[in-house]
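INFO batch 0412 | record 1 of 1 | parsing
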Amino acid sequence: MTKIKNDKGISLAKRITTYIEQGKEFTLQELYSEFGEHAPSTVRARVYESNKVIRTARGRYILAGVEIEAILEQVDTRKHIHRLVEAKVKYDMIFLDPPYRLSGQIGGNRSLVDYDTISEDEFKDIILEAEKLLKDENSQLYFMIAGGKSSIAGASKYINMFSHTGLKLINKGSYTKLTKSGKVCNMGKYDMPPELIFSYSKSGKERFDEVSNNMEYRFERPPLPKSGGYRTQKPLALLKSLIERSTKVGEKVLDLFAGSGVTLEAAILLGRKVHGLEMSTQAIQSHILPRLSFPTQNIKGTQASLFDCF
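INFO prediction complete | emitting tokens
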């Protein structure tokens, strides 16, 4: 941050506000150092008297009114999603790609056997809550799941869980993984089956009339874990397309299982606000944070007030 000139014509409260507004997060210790000519108690008093300050974590704060582009929470979505409902925050688009319990997800280059997977009943609870988070009748939820022969029987059980909600199917598509040369990735002598993509809304309609009905995507597969990638990572171009077809600049996107962080990156690049939930420290430190070019807030217990700035 830039040093704020000690101009006697400017009040301490105004100088503190100017300093804070240069960034998105601050600590009281930083303020004590910046305004060392004043007693810490005086600095602290001016902060709380003149501005609405939100505590984001121990020793860290944000100034209400400072626009937040991204929120990243390290939480278990199964236990945390109801808190978003209680906070009454609404989203224009939700992306849902949790680690399912499917036979086809075990083994191979991206085995999910050591993931904390989501059962069918847990999935039902999640989508019932996710439905409440959609902003209006045409706000969309996108959901992806494996479509191979070894997985489809189990996948159908998850897909059928949407019958317990008020959400209606809008469209169905797929994502085919390609090699660098443009060929379909294979598993031995067989082509790798596409992943299925479903879009839902309360109305069962697309939000924008001009959106194409085509949701068939063919993209180069992101790097595998052995090359530093994330096991369930989706192409950036895929997430950008889903976000663009369902939201406007400045609107809010929620990724309930942030994983690789691609959804957050895509939303930021497109000028949307984004909220990601992820429970894995390794995923956050190794994959999500390196994708973000500015500080995000790792919030615990302050959703209701934080969303005043989101």
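INFO post-check: The domain at 12-63 is CATH 1.10.10 (Arc Repressor Mutant, subunit A).
INFO record closed
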